[in-house]
Amino acid sequence: MTDQPASAAATETAAHTEPDVRELADIPAVEVISRAAVMLMSSAAEKLGLADDDPDASPRRDLDEARRVITALAGLVTASVEYLGPHAGPIRDGLQSLQRAFRESSAHPDAPGTGPGEKYTGPVH
Question: Is 46 in contact with 60 (CB distance < 8 Å)?
Fold first, then answer.
């Protein structure tokens, strides 16, 4: 038997089983920006059907939605590149890969410089 009241023991047990949660104010800006970029990249990849064995037959494929997400990612990357430091290169590479995948997926590819996000990044070939 313990000397702790039942409610104190329950609180202590709950504290050990709940995952650690960080306050948003405690997370550095570069981490918030990087996480947002990764979420946008993941969304674009899903909307391009890249998570499936055959992207062309993916039921989740939606090029209009992919265009929007890739453009949002390009805007975020362009606006925050000076704050990303060593994270900028891999994020830019991921963005360019998605832009190329979009171009390859399109039945009628956009002219260079007019694809998703290219008004922010410049033409991607």
Answer: yes
Contact 96, 124 (CB under 8 A): yes
How far, CA to CA in Å, does 51 sit from each of 43, 45, 61, 69, 112? 10, 7, 10, 16, 26
Q: What are phi and psi of 70, to 5 degrees?
A: -65, -40
- For 33, phi then psi, to 5°, come to -65, -45
- The range of the structural domain enclosing residue 31 comes to 27-121
| Domains contained in the chain, number | 1
Contacts by 85-93 with C-beta closer than 8 Å and gap 24+? 85/30, 87/30, 87/34, 91/34, 91/37, 91/41, 92/121
Domain membership flag for residue 16 = no
Spans of the chain, pLDDT less than 50: none
What is the Cα 24 distance to its own chain's centre?
18
pTM, two decimals, is 0.80
